[in-house]
Amino acid sequence: MNVQRWLQAGTNTVAVEVISNPLVQSEGHLGKPGLWVEGDFGELKFGSDESWQASVAGDVTSEAATQDEPLKGRGSILTLGPLEKPSLWASWRPVQLATSAERPIQQSGIPAPMEATYPASGQTRAHGGVALGKETKVQSNGGFSVDYDRVVSAHIVVTVEGGEAAILTLMPNEHKSPGYNRAVRLKLGHGLQSFEVPFFDSFSTINVEASSVTTPFVIKEIRAVFRSYPVKYRGEFECSDPQLSEIWKVGRWSTQICMQTHHLDSPHHQEPISDPGDYLVQSLINYNTFGEGGLPRQDLRKYAQIIRDRHGRVFHTSYALLWLQMLVEYWQHTGDEQLVRELAPTAFMLLDEWEKWRGANGLISNPPNFMFIDWVEIEGFNLHHPPAVIGQGVLTAFYYRALDDVSRIARLVGDAKRVERSGQLQDSVKAAFRRELWSNEKGLFRDGKPSECQSPTGTWLPADRQIETFSSQVNLLACAYGLAPESDAKSVLNKVMESGPANCQPYFMHFAFDALDRVGLFNRWGTRQMRRWKVVADSQTFPEMWDRGDLSHSWQCTPTYQLSARVLGVRPTSPGFKSILVKPQICDLTWAKGSVPTPLGDCRVEWKVDGKRVELKVKVPRGASCEVVLPGRSAVKVSEGWHTLTADYDGLESADRESYDSSVVKER
After folding, report:
1. C-beta separation of 188 from 128 below 8 A
2. What's 602's DSSP letter?
């Protein structure tokens, strides 16, 4: 953090405030509690040592949420009193120095977050002794709300004059209604006071309640200090359907507010580094909207350390393989070969561990658990942690894809034996998947078979029942990763899609779109499915799931990626976009335009349907080669600069656009 703006000529005193009562709990801590500070001012350098002193503020407390008025909500409450001023050094005591860290401390590779005041859209719901205005006057107990035009990820700063002994409670909420997720109680003193809430949250409103008021006071300002990873809005997308154009922008914003010191699952939950399933989707959106590789790079390194510490046995078992998928996508979108080489040993160790979990049937049958698949239920089982009879097929499909990913990495580092071994395993796994799970009667893949798992059952691995299920999830992955024979894939996928797709939440739809693209049905189903995403008016975001969940998740925003990569049609075909595929999926649209960031510059595309012809303009960044594929499946190679291409187009209705005619692409 650059602190230069706060320094003055002469002697400066540095103090660091630490809140040791975290409102967000993690599942274990890899390090020891403590504080380490280092400053660099050119010739002057300093750091935390035995000369430092500390003061414990006993009036900073946290407590569990209550349901008492006016605190209606869930989460935690932090109570802050008037803290001891740093100038009162007499009461500060020498610190206790740690002899060593539990592991080597690594400097963060990402920049400080961007911060800016986010303007409120208004004040509402005043009651009791509160008079709203440019400065809000509080005569007696009462409250009001400060509203914003959408959900923001922000710290709250409040400035108050007077009100000694009163309690001011700030309750940020994602919905514009009473309630909170995290709240803070401020014990007011006398005179002019300014408080910065020591956590950030996601909210579209701040509910404010004043209690124990004995003397009037003035709230001079309540300010939301927005924060996120520093990004630039490089990517663009717009099309003939305003709903889809809005969906793209909502996904961009939802992803930005999740980009903090890692790709959070959401600012609402703020889970620790544990969710590569989320990060996979978020990073793909990031690449197509911001083109920012720094945060994914650090996420990949952090989670690799967890994989090594736990020897591949992470809490959400499937997420370890999605970490590997994320690593390969990072390489493809950024061209950063160095990180892939650095993490290759972790990837190899992970796949060696998974090979041990294959059962006698050739499937992944004996992992510690089969988490995480999707937030749905099948036969009374939650697919967050299903039994083996439901989870075998999904984990086997993810493993099959991972073998392909690790083969690419092995080729990069010159490990020919691992390439050969991965190929052999892929052949064996594919044969087992088809032999054990295909049902001729249903024309679908079953999820698994009972009594094949040897792992001990428990909280996260329920015991099998004698059931046979055919989930959307296993069939989507079978089509996405090439486990379904070409002769059956379209039939399988149409059955799944015609049912809704049944029992499939927005997160897993990311893999559904992968399947549609691979099988050649994206034009038929792609935009039709994306219109299922509905924007919540209060937050201008999507709910975490179709009908519930928080309003600041980004794992469900895959349409933003799909619209850039598949409808606009821009994708890398070699690491770092050195070669680019432009293959627009027309679906039921008449035009689309936008740009996709690449390490070589932005790739711009505009296409439109004019009668029975498609016209496309593309600007290829310098240093990249490009292959353009328009309806008709013929390809034209183009180099840097602008190019205009056309193709005959049959103008079929969207429901029938699963294939194109054999028209020829022409460059003008």
Report:
1. no
2. P
DSSP assigned state of 633: S
Element (H, E) at 243: helix 242-258
Looking at residue 80, its pLDDT comes to 63
User: pLDDT value at position 71?
Assistant: 45
- What is each CA distance from 107 to 36, 110, 233, 304, in whole angstroms? 11, 9, 27, 16
Confidence label for 460 from pLDDT (cuts 50, 70 and 90) = very high
User: CATH class for domain 4-228?
Assistant: mainly beta
What are the pLDDT digits (tens) for 65-120?
443 444 444 556 666 655 445 455 667 888 888 777 767 778 889 999 999 999 99
User: Which percentage of the chain shows pLDDT scores above 90?
Assistant: 77
**HEC readout, 211-233:** ECCCCCEEEEEEEEEEEECCCCC
> Where in the chain are all domains bearing CATH 1.50.10.10?
232-337+537-559, 357-532
CA distance to 183, 199, 204, 205, 524, per residue, from 120 (Å): 19, 19, 9, 9, 42
- How much is the average pLDDT of 327-351? 98
**Among positive and negative, which fits the CA dihedral 143, 147, 153, 158?**
negative
3-state helix, strand, coil in the chain (%, to 5): 30, 25, 45
Domain with CATH 2.60.420.10 in the chain: 575-667
How does strand 579-582 pair with strand 625-629? parallel
Extract the tokens encoding 382: 């939650």
pLDDT, mean of residues 432-440 = 98
Dihedral sign, Cα of residue 178, residue 184, residue 190, residue 193: negative
In this structure, the chain runs to a length of 668
Cα separation of 43 and 40, whole Å? 8
The residues that bridge with 167 in the sheet, in sequence order, are: 187, 211
Question: 177-205: per-residue pLDDT in tens?
Answer: 999 999 999 999 999 999 988 889 999 99
Tokens of 114: 């961007």
More confidently predicted of 282 and 31? 282
Give the 3-state DSSP-derived string for 495-526, with helices as H, strands as E and coil as C.
HHHHCCCCCCCHHHHHHHHHHHHHHCCHHHHH
Q: What is the mean pLDDT of the chain?
A: 90
Residue keyed to tokens 């998740």? 553
pLDDT of residue 360: 95
CATH number among 3.30.420.140, 2.60.420.10, 3.40.190.170, 3.40.50.720, domain 575-667 = 2.60.420.10
Evaluate whether 402 touches 414 at the Cβ level (below 8 Å). no
pLDDT in tens, 254-299: 999 999 999 999 999 999 899 999 999 999 999 999 999 999 999 9
Architecture of domain 357-532 in this structure:
Alpha/alpha barrel (1.50)
Q: Around 560, how many Cα atoms within 13 Å sit in the side-chain half-sphere?
A: 30
Residue 335, CA atoms < 13 Å, CB-side half-sphere = 13
Alpha-carbon torsion, ordered 558, 564, 567, 573, to 10 deg: -100
Contact present, 399 and 321 (Cβ < 8 Å)? yes
Q: 28: which 2 tokens?
A: 């274990």
pTM score, whole prediction? 0.92
Whole-number pLDDT of residue 218:
97
DSSP 105: -
Residue with tokens 């079953």: 446
- Find out if CATH 1.50.10.10 is the number for domain 232-337+537-559: yes
Tokens of 390: 């439901």
